[in-house]
Amino acid sequence: MFLRIDHVGIACHDLEEKIAFYESTFGLTVVSREVNEEQGVREAMLHVADGPSGASYVQLLEPLHPDTPVGRFLAKRGEGVHHIGYGVADVTEALRRLSAQGIRLIDERPRHGSMGAAIAFLHPKDVGGVLTELVQAPER
Ligand code: V0V
Ligand code: CO
């Protein structure tokens, strides 16, 4: 079902500060910066590597408000890994199969994600405490 790890989402208080850290420490490059009002985040994608089924990234996430998924996460747990995003060929089909297996879907239908992707989240309580995101990259 999974093609690759598309990105690791990391929650932080100060996006620009964390971008500077990842650039200077690991030599990563920002390829996209977006505000996603629906998800309540300001986020940046930093390119890590290219593979046969597409690229992988680190996604740095700063909450737009405290009362958002990432805002609540920071208040409860502090900065750190927030979710794993797996690349899939067809997010709608993946949701159908996972739902049939009894996995609780946060999103019944795909949402708008970073860099034009279609995304959907699975509930962490049904994935061993890991917030899991499905990512269908746009056609190129
Ligand atoms: C919360 N919980 C988590 C978690 N966030 N567990 C693992 N990983 C996380 N990131 C646990 C939390 O400890 C609670 O467990 C329980 O889930 C309910 O949490 P809550 O404090 O009530 O928090 P809520 O109201 O935020 O609900 C949690 C969920 C929510 C996961 C349902 O955050 C959500 O809908 N997330 C999906 C959307 C999202 O995260 N968007 C931001 C990334 P206990 O304490 O009861 O045991 S946007 C993105 O990645 C984009 C745009 C992209 O990739 O393109
Ligand atoms: Co993400």
Q: Which outline best applies? A: globular
Report the major sheet: 8 strands, mixed
Task: Walk across the major sheet and give the strand order.
Answer: 2-3-4-1-5-8-7-6
Helix content: 10-25%
Note the beta-strand portion.
35-45%
The end-to-end distance, rounded to whole angstroms, is 21 Å
Q: Count the strands? A: 8
Which H/E pattern describes the elements? EHEEEHEHEEE
Q: Which small molecules are bound?
A: ligand V0V, cobalt (II) ion
Low-confidence runs of at least 5 consecutive residues: none
What does the average pLDDT come to?
A: 98
Radius of gyration: 15 Å
Count of discrete alpha- or pi-helical segments spanning 4 or more residues: 3
Structural class: alpha+beta
List keywords for this structure.
8-stranded mixed beta sheet; alpha+beta; 3 helices; binds cobalt (II) ion; globular
Lay out the secondary structure:
Blueprint: E1 4-11, H1 15-26, E2 29-36, E3 41-51, E4 54-63, H2 69-77, E5 80-87, H3 91-100, E6 111-112, E7 118-122, E8 132-136
Parallel strand pairs: 1-4, 5-8
Antiparallel strand pairs: 1-5, 2-3, 3-4, 6-7, 7-8
Written account of the structure:
The protein contains three helices and eight strands. The protein has helices at 15-26, 69-77, 91-100, and strands spanning 4-11, 29-36, 41-51, 54-63, 80-87, 111-112, 118-122, 132-136. It has 140 residues and is an alpha+beta fold. The radius of gyration is 15 Å and the shape is globular. The mean pLDDT is 98. It has an eight-stranded mixed beta sheet. Bound molecules: ligand V0V and cobalt (II) ion. Cobalt (II) ion (CO) binds at residues 7, 9, 59, 83, 85, 133.
